[in-house]
Write a structure and sequence with these properties.
Elements lengths: L2 H4 L29 H19 L9 H10 L4 E7 L6 H16 L3 E7 L4 H13 L10 E3 L4 E3 L3 H16 L4
Length: 176
């Protein structure tokens, strides 16, 4: 045979010789790390996780008396909706906005909602709803302030005093 074909032949010198048995030689790499204690531990952890993540949480039960006491305990808020235009030309809007922000800091019982109407069509729609619900008579003047039960047209220092007085009286008449 030519020598070039001899290079292709495998080395058969080890054929027929006894070699020591290596238990790990025929195993996959992962089988070296998996043994009975490790398998028992892994299965135990999985079962415990399944148990804890499938337990339904108990429904909270609150009696009707507890609900009533919670309703009377929480303070009622005075809703104030301030509708204004975001314009440098509306000085009353700017003054009114500053007053409303100060009023909110002064009284914690106020839930103040500011509605800018120059650019937000949703606020314009809401404004029309307030005008209808409060039966506001013409002329419609911006800014306008709506409280729980009354409204104020425009803004000036005297209107600010009226609003402050209204909030003070409403706050004092609230249950503690």
């Amino acid at each position: 045979m030519p020598e070039e074909h001899l290079a292709d032949l495998k080395d058969l010198s080890a054929v027929g010789k006894l070699q020591p048995y290596k238990k790990e030689a025929g195993q996959h790499v992962w089988k070296k790390f998996v043994n009975i204690p490790n398998a028992i531990f892994a299965v135990s952890v999985i079962l415990i996780m399944i148990y804890f993540f499938t337990i339904p949480s108990p429904e909270p039960t609150i009696s009707a008396e507890a609900v009533k006491s919670l309703e009377t305990a929480k303070p009622k808020l005075i809703e104030i909706h301030y509708f204004y235009e975001n314009s440098k030309d509306c000085s009353r809007c700017i003054e009114g906005r500053a007053f409303m922000e100060g009023l909110k800091k002064k009284y914690s019982s106020i839930n103040l909602k500011m509605h800018e109407m120059s650019f937000d069509p949703d606020n314009k729609k809401l404004f029309k709803e307030f005008i209808e619900n409060y039966s506001v008579e013409e002329p419609i003047i911006i800014p306008m302030i709506f409280t729980n039960d009354i409204y104020f047209k425009d803004f000036s220092n005297s209107i600010g005093v009226e609003i402050d007085s209204y909030v003070k009286n409403a706050t004092q008449s609230m249950p503690n």
